[in-house]
Amino acid sequence: MTKRLHAFAIAQLLRPLAIAGSACAAATLVAAPAAAQDDKMVPIAIPAQPNAITLATGKLPGNPAPEAWHRQYGSVFARNVTVATLTPFLPDPGKASGAAVIVAPGGGFRTLSMENEGWDVARALAAKGVAAFVLKYRLNPTPADMPGFEKSMTAMFTPGARPPRPNAGAMAATLAPQIADARAAFALVRQRAGEWHVDADRIGMIGFSAGAMLTMATTLDGGDAKPAFIGNIYGPLAAVTVPADAPPMFVALAADDPFFGNGGFGLIDSWRTAKRPVEFHLFEQGGHGFGMYPKTTTSTGWFDEFARWMDMHGWLKPRG
């Protein structure tokens, strides 16, 4: 695989950004897992993030709006992120396996589901003995005020409002800052592997929705990032060109996902054709954006299955 994604691969990987990505931008906002009264977006102060480490990728230009956070569905979201950070969630040293995971929340590259698809996932991994690092990557700009933000999200669903499909080169350029953030995250964890009791060659990545797209882009075109294993949770499953050394992949998707449930399973077929390890869970129900929310659907069990998969590969046990 060249330093840039093959045009075909990136066109397939990022196709949803043109045809469904606008909807995906609000996926965590419209997939109601909690009581209906929780669906209103309420601005909140930026929460304390005392352990967040600023990554060396610099400030994203072209976004004058300040970083802002809001609460919805009993969870918290960030937007207008212009400076990337990485927050460690380290396991008890007595049960640490040495494995680590970079966690990439979703939100269509316009918001980040920091709690449901970030911190809660990281805490669950740390409880299993896996060092977890939540990546707050840089985002595309949204209106600074909440009414303007809500209006912009509503406009995405207006019939005929979808923009023309961009070409592969434009989509690759769009993801360049986020790929840089992911690469910086891997570099930082490897740099401080001794301090954090992490095996530098046992660092994986898991992403949700847009975070799953970033996980795939990092895997295919992340240069020295080279995840040891990856998790794709309700991301698009279009076929890609698979490198010969592609890592083991875990995939979870609900059949009733309104964005990616009917897009086929080309990604799974690509991994299998390349004879690379892949595990795929297609849940009957769960919608989009279920993450760590407790729901009555079997999709709630995805994390337990992911942990079993990690254990099967030996990542929940110290090496040797």
From TrEMBL:
InterPro entries on file: AB_hydrolase_fold, BD-FAE-like_dom, GDXG_lipolytic_enzyme
Pfam families documented for this protein: BD-FAE
Domain spans labelled BD-FAE-like: 173-220
Coiled coil location: none
GO molecular function, one term: hydrolase activity
Keyword Hydrolase carried by entry: yes
Signal peptide: 1-25
Keywords from the UniProt entry: Hydrolase, Signal
Protein name: Alpha/beta hydrolase
Organism (species): Sphingomonas kyungheensis
The organism's taxonomic lineage, starting at the top: Bacteria, Pseudomonadati, Pseudomonadota, Alphaproteobacteria, Sphingomonadales
